[in-house]
Amino acid sequence: MFHTIIIAGNLGRDPEMRYIPSGQPVTSFSVATSRKYTNNAGQQIEETIWFKVTTWGKQAEVCNQYLKKGSKVLVEGSLKGDPNTGSPRIWTKQDGTPGASFEVTANTVRFLSSKGEGGQPQAGGEASGDSFVGAPEDDIPF
Asked: Is 53 in contact with 30 (CB distance < 8 Å)?
C-alpha cells in the first residue's frame, strides 16, 4: 500500500534543525493551510489546518537555510499518525481547548515565495531527497 499527501501553505514559525545521534540532520517546521468558504447561513468561514513537517538529510539543511516564518511552500510526503492510535496527535492548547496536529514526513519541499518574501535564492526552488521514516518527534504545539 502507498499514500502521499500534498500541502501548500505558509510556515508558521522558523524551521528548527537538529541532529540525530548518527549525525543525520533533521529539520521541522509547521505549515498552515487555509480555505475560505460561505456556509449555509451565508457566513464567511475561514478554516486553518496545521501540519508539522519533518525533513531529513540534505533536504533538511536546505530547508533550514532558506525557509523562514511566512515562507510559502508546497510539501509532498507521507502522513504520519500517532503511534498509539494511528490518528492525528491530540494536545491541549494554551487556552485549554483541544488541538490536533497532522504530521508529514516530506519527500519534496518546493519553495514558492519570491526572494523578498521568504529569503529563498529564487522562486520555485526545490529541496528533495530521500526521507528517513521512523525517528521520534518531540514536542507538538506550534
From this structure: yes
Our count of domains for the chain comes to 1
Number of helices (H) and strands (E), helices first, in the chain? 2, 8
- The residue segments making up the domain with residue 99 are 5-34+43-128
- pTM of the predicted protein model: 0.75
User: How does pLDDT run along the chain (142 residues), one tens digit per residue?
Assistant: 778 999 999 999 999 999 999 999 999 999 999 999 999 999 999 998 989 999 999 999 999 999 999 999 999 999 988 888 888 888 888 999 988 878 999 999 999 987 666 544 444 455 544 433 333 344 444 4
